[in-house]
């Protein structure tokens, strides 16, 4: 397998929409069993599914270059749709009494969007790196922290390498994304009294 093919596969497998769809049901399951997983599915549908559908429609219509939205100028609309979907998910989770850990996780998603969306209008911060790093922080909270942190750091580094290898980002852009994702998620969990 060539380096470019590996980078493309990493980019697709660990894309933000994949992680945002996969993580909430797992977090809900850990927090409160199968009932928590059901809340997690609701969060996945809104936080990941809605933005993925908006992006897919944009790609089909030709308004967007790909589901990774390489053209920074085209990111604003899909990102605002993502913000609206995450707000809707957060409101529903709070109103229906979802597990605190799941509410904190979705809150971290919203805060991370609040930080990265304004940045990406001027500079192409990496959403891949931000979401991957945030996911690692959440998983390190719900699973044995040290092994997840060690393995997760490797996964985040691999995602950063892939984005740079494909020339979608520079090293400062992926580093900034990783720092924002990890810091916002850790800070949010701490604010919820979960760290």
Structure overview:
The chain starts with a helix and ends with a helix. The chain is mainly alpha-helical and 195 residues long. The protein contains seven helices and no strands. Helices cover 80% and strands 0% of the residues. The model has no long low-confidence stretch (mean pLDDT 93). It has one domain. Helix 1 (3-13) crosses helix 6 (145-165), helix 2 crosses helix 4 and helix 4 runs antiparallel to helix 7 (171-191).
List keywords for this structure.
single chain; 195 residues; mainly alpha; 7 helices; globular
Average pLDDT for all residues? 93
Strand content: under 5%
Q: What is the straight-line distance between the termini?
A: 40 Å
Radius of gyration: 16 Å
Q: What is the number of beta strands?
A: 0
Q: Low-confidence runs (pLDDT<50, min 5 residues)?
A: none
Q: What's the story with the biggest beta sheet?
A: none
Helix percentage? over 70%
In N-to-C order, the SSE pattern is HHHHHHH
Q: How many helices in DSSP terms?
A: 7
What's the oligomerization state?
single chain
**What is the count of distinct domains?**
1
Query: Which structural class best describes the helix and strand composition?
Result: mainly alpha
Q: Shape, please?
A: globular
Topology:
Blueprint: H1 3-13, H2 16-61, H3 76-95, H4 100-120, H5 127-142, H6 145-165, H7 171-191
Helix pairs in contact: 1-6, 2-3, 2-4, 2-5, 3-4, 4-5, 4-7, 5-6, 5-7, 6-7
């Amino acid at each position: 397998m060539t380096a470019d093919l590996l980078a493309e596969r990493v980019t697709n497998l660990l894309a933000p929409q994949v992680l945002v769809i996969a993580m909430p049901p797992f977090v809900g399951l850990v927090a409160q069993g199968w009932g928590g997983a059901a809340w997690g599915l609701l969060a996945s549908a809104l936080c990941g599914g809605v933005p993925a559908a908006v992006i897919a429609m944009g790609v089909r219509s030709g308004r967007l270059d790909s589901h990774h939205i390489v053209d920074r100028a085209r990111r604003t609309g899909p990102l605002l749709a993502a913000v609206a979907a995450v707000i809707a998910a957060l409101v529903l989770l709070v109103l229906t009494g979802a597990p605190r850990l799941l509410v904190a996780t979705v809150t971290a998603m919203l805060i991370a969007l609040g930080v990265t969306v304004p940045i990406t209008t001027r500079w192409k911060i990496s959403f891949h790196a931000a979401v991957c790093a945030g996911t690692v922080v959440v998983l390190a909270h719900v699973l044995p922290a040290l092994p997840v942190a060690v393995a997760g750091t490797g996964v985040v580094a691999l995602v950063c390498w892939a984005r740079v290898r494909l020339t979608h980002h520079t090293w400062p852009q992926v580093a900034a994304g990783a720092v924002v994702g990890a810091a916002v998620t850790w800070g949010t969990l701490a604010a919820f009294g979960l760290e």
